[in-house]
Write a structure and sequence with these properties.
Layout (H helix, E strand, L loop, with lengths): L1 E4 L11 H9 L12 E4 L7 E4 L8 H5 L5 E3 L5 E3 L9 H5 L6 E2 L5 E2 L17 E4 L8
Antiparallel strand pairs: 1-8, 2-3, 4-5, 6-7
Length: 139
């Protein structure tokens, strides 16, 4: 089982290629507001950038908070999102301990699903897919 890690953010130039790749390849839209990974300054251009993405919690607080089952636990950590079940209540984003669920202006949630499609688009290899052991809560 693999999860996405922002392992080398000291290399990041803030180009947002990963965010745009996620929006385009996963959500079929080209918008900063439709991505599961967000890049932000960690205090200015001289201090670098940080990636905000799902940390693959297990159990995931967003899953427990979702009243409709639109979010379900992914084996190994993280979530599976079923957009058709979402009622756009925003409870998933409120429950996320690392503020990794982004709500667009219509309160549609966007979260990293650890697919790894963004990795190839990072020009400085800041992101990687990392093998993790299956955690006890999955068994």
């Amino acid at each position: 089982m693999k999860i996405l890690k922002a392992a080398r953010m000291e290399r990041c130039i803030g180009c947002h290629s990963c965010s745009l790749a996620c929006a385009r390849q996963v959500h079929k839209m080209l918008s900063w507001n439709k991505a599961g990974i967000r890049i932000s300054s960690s205090g200015g251009l001289s201090t670098g950038f940080e990636a905000r993405l799902c940390l693959a919690c297990n159990p995931a607080a967003c899953v427990e908070a979702c009243p409709t089952g639109a979010f379900s636990q992914r084996k190994g950590g993280g979530v599976i999102q079923k957009r058709k079940l979402c009622i756009r209540c925003g409870k998933c984003a409120e429950a996320c301990p690392v503020d990794a669920i982004f709500l667009d202006h219509l309160v549609n949630p966007y979260v990293c699903i650890h697919c790894g499609r963004c990795v190839a688009f990072c020009p400085h290899a800041c992101l990687e897919m990392v093998e993790v052991e299956t955690r006890e809560a999955d068994e």
